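User: I'm putting together notes for a lab meeting next week and I want to include a structural view of one of the chains we've been expressing. I don't have a solved structure, so I'd like a prediction I can at least talk through. The sequence is below, exactly as it appears in our construct file.
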Amino acid sequence: MKPALNLRLHQQLALTPQLQQAIRLLQLSSVELEMELREALESNPLLELPDEPAEAAPAEAASGADAPPAEYETHTTTSETASTESESRDADEDRFEALDSTFDMPSRSNSSSDDEFEAQEPEQQDLRDHLLWQLNLTPMSPRDRAIAVAVIEAVDDDGYLHEPAEAIQQGLASLYDVDADEIEAVRHRIQRFDPLGVASRNLRECLLVQLDAFDGDVDGIVVARAIVADHLEVLAKNDRARLSRSLKVGSDQIDAAVQLIRALDPKPGSSVSSAAPEYVAPDAYAFRHHGQWQVSLAPGCQPQLAINRHYESLIARAQRDDASYLRGQLQEARWLIKSLKTRADTILKVAQAIVRAQSAFLDYGPEAMKPLVLKDVADEIGMHESTVSRVTTRKFLYTPRGTFEFKHFFSSGVSTVDGGSASATAIQAMIRKLIDAEPTGKPLSDQGLAEELNRRGINVARRTVAKYREAMNIAASNERCRLS
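Assistant: Thanks for the context. Below is the predicted structure for the 484-residue chain, given as structure tokens.
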């Protein structure tokens, strides 16, 4: 074989560092973006926050009950003339500059004072902490207090004590030699802590403790105690006729007792949650203005960064190595600012496309949700589906009907008799509405729900109804009959 030279043409997509940065910023949530910008401000001397004006000009109050806060920049979903867009953009930029910094980050020239304290999140209290706090307020001997601590530590998240007395005795062996009766006596005292019934061995005991807290003259209390003590299995089957025969009482008394039992908490520990609350900051706002749905970006989606002019002016006077470093940092700063603008513009385009597609949902509710897939939005805004997928992840849109993740507005469709389609979200809303309106004691089966939807023009099978019902955590018809 002889060596030879060949000329070949081909196309190749190169992911430049600038493109990689834009893609990475696009998929970040608002909280992650804030952390990213904090790190960038600390590591890059060419970046700074713009100076805040002395006084912020008051923004005009938006009209309409659904209008967002006046400081948010407004972008209409309808097309306007170029001159109107330019004037509106200039006015919006002036208002946005008057806002406080999106991220409460001091500039490099400001040093934090020792007298300033950062706001601290309240420490979350779990069930055991809640019980130990009550224990510290309860007078007890050191021996009983040690037993109580051991019992509380053995309680599970639902509030039940499944650990046997022998295991608690072994755990206390190094401190005290206790017997099972002492453990039971202390456990009964803990059962009266808040929430009532905690540290119970089983459901029957838990419910009886809660019933003991009622006055003796409460309607149905005597029958309720009898049912929980001896007929809990019959109650689970909702066999009220059998309960009436066994207890030799009328149906009215059974109904009053069952209603009282249903007001009890079968899992008392679950009422004291140890999970930290999650807060969602919307990335965009949808609101009606002058009869049209409009979209505005939250300030968190368009953080303002600027080039530090002092360090930029030093590049020409710096030595070779320092000048090379500063030029590299300047290029990175410009890339970051451009990437942030691209991110904000892309989120705005996707939010506008979603609002245009789902305006019926905003007007009439979940039953009017239309089928929508990523390709529909990608084709409308002229971007790839992967880009739309990144934008819709962990981004939230505020609407008058609530705050939803962008992905909430995407769902597959089911055909209708008139040749159209209905979204899965709309069908789920219809199913929930039918179940809420079903007669007491006569719940609709999945087949009955499917037939009712078919009569309304929705071509849906029974198994599809069952899938949607389970996705909404709604019990089957036989279970709903027992609970009715």
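A couple of points you could mention at the meeting. The mean pLDDT is 81. Residues 127-271 form one domain.

User: Perfect, that's what I needed.
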